[in-house]
Amino acid sequence: MAMKIRLARGGSKKRPFYRIVASDSRMPRDGRYIEKLGTYNPLLPKDSEERVQMDVERIQYWLGEGAKPTDRVSRFLEAAGVVEKKERSNPKKAVPGKKAQERAEEKAAKAAEAAEAAAAPAEEEAAAEE
Questions:
Q1: Where are the beta strands (DSSP E) in the chain?
Q2: Residue 19 needs a FRET pair 20 to 30 A away by CA distance; which of 25, 59, 62, 85 works?
Q3: pLDDT tens, 69-104?
């Protein structure tokens, strides 16, 4: 059985609340789970102790049994010191999208044209004075 340690969503519309659960990976996200391992409330401030609460002993047990944590849960475990930190790389994170790049190119072209237009009359005036 492929086990996952993941988040199961609860709470009402626009008021999320998550349970950290150990479940079979074939079950639905909010469906049947084997054991509740903790809670996560994203509405609380980041420095609040009640934002993420976990039963670390049970999580270590399930990790020993071969359960794989999801990305978000693994970040919680890294912050708690249960799992060693993974190296993540997203080099394209700060690169703007295609349309933003096109707009930047158009803006640069207009600025270059304006600079040329401003420089041309100044050159004509300098030539007329001589």
A1: 3-12, 15-24, 35-40, 52-54, 68-69
A2: 85
A3: 999 999 999 998 888 888 878 888 888 889 999 999
